[in-house]
Write a structure and sequence with these properties.
Blueprint (H helix, E strand, L loop, with lengths): L5 E4 L2 H4 L5 H28 L13 E4 L6 H10 L30 H11 L5 E4 L3 H13 L4 E4 L5 H13 L4 E4 L14 E4 L8
Parallel strand pairs: 1-2, 3-5, 3-6, 4-5
GO molecular function, one term: nucleic acid binding
Organism: Reticulomyxa filosa
Keywords: ATP-binding, Coiled coil, Helicase, Hydrolase, Nucleotide-binding
Amino acid sequence: MAQLKYLVLDEADRILQSEFAAAVEEIIKRLDEQRKKYEEETTAQAQAQEQEQTQTLTTKRQTLLFSATMTKKVERLEKACLHDPVKIEVNQKYQTVGSLTQEYLFVAAKHKLTYTVHLLTELSDRSVIVFANTKKSCHHLSLVLHNLGFFVIPLHGEMTQYERMGAVEKFKEGTKSILVATDVAARGLDIPLVSCVINYDLPIHSK
């Protein structure tokens, strides 16, 4: 591990919000310690042999950190593991459009499904994504909507990559007008012409 050349931290903001945050920070700390120890031992060995320092470590470790949002935790991780960083930020044209309208509907939990069905009936001629927090909730909602005659397809983390991409393609093509998904579809998917997004369950994280 002392000779590790590349360390990639993808979706750093989500990692640091999970139970793996402490483990990631500990891994980075151990990597730095091992590398420093290796460099010291290599230098001492070269000096003892009256030779030039070995070139086993020709380059420093390159760390690549990707994050959809720059939270304080991500900034702290950036300072801890990046040296002389080059920062690339996404252009503003990819940010949320100004015409986006957000609405909240407060209903009793026992009526949530009924109101969701009502909303989807009103939006029957449009493409809609419905987010659920868990695979169980996603599956249950998909089954209910299917039995009510909606053209719906589920998308969650327990599906294979092939199945997930197939689901997204069907939704893009209009084969299915309602995509019921967990947060596996929240980021990294380019799905144009979506008229409405419904959070069936209250999102765990506001961002």
